[in-house]
Amino acid sequence: MTTLHGRQDLPDLRPLYLGFSEMPLVSISNDQRRPVAKANFVATIHHGIPANLHKPVYNPRGGYVAFLGRISPEKRPDRAIRIARARHSPEDRRQSRQGR
Predict the structure, then answer these.
(1) What is the DSSP secondary-structure string of the chain?
(2) Quick one: DSSP state of residue 12?
(3) How many degrees, rounded to 5, is the angle at CA 85 between CA 79 and CA 87?
(4) What does the pLDDT average to over 1-29?
(5) What is the helix (H) or strand (E) element at residue 41, kind and residue range?
(6) Residue 94: per-residue pLDDT
(7) Please, are residues 1 and 42 in contact by the beta-carbon 8 Å criterion?
(8) Residues 28-76: tens digit of each pLDDT
(9) Phi and psi angles of residue 86, each rounded to the nearest 5 degrees, phi first
């Protein structure tokens, strides 16, 4: 049995999964199966992190950015950083200090 991680829509993967159709596969999400839907999936096992372990903070303090996920172009960490920087503009920091 093999647990798949990452993108499954890469062109070289489809022939691999079809050529070894007896190989049992585990996906980490149901969406991950979509590009190779005819592969031999036996289960989906999600990331294993309890849903209530981390609560979003909508008014963060501390000047940090947390990016949870595999760093790759399709995850767009560049966009997350750009949004965080825009959110932490001098005006936002001033309003945070004033309790708004």
Answers:
(1) -EE--S----TTHHHHHHHTTTS-EEESSHHHHGGGTTS-EEEE------TTSS---SS--SS-----S---GGG-HHHHHHHHHHHT-HHHHHHHHTT-
(2) T
(3) 100
(4) 88
(5) strand 41-44
(6) 61
(7) yes
(8) 889 999 998 888 999 998 877 777 888 877 777 776 667 677 788 878 8
(9) -65, -40
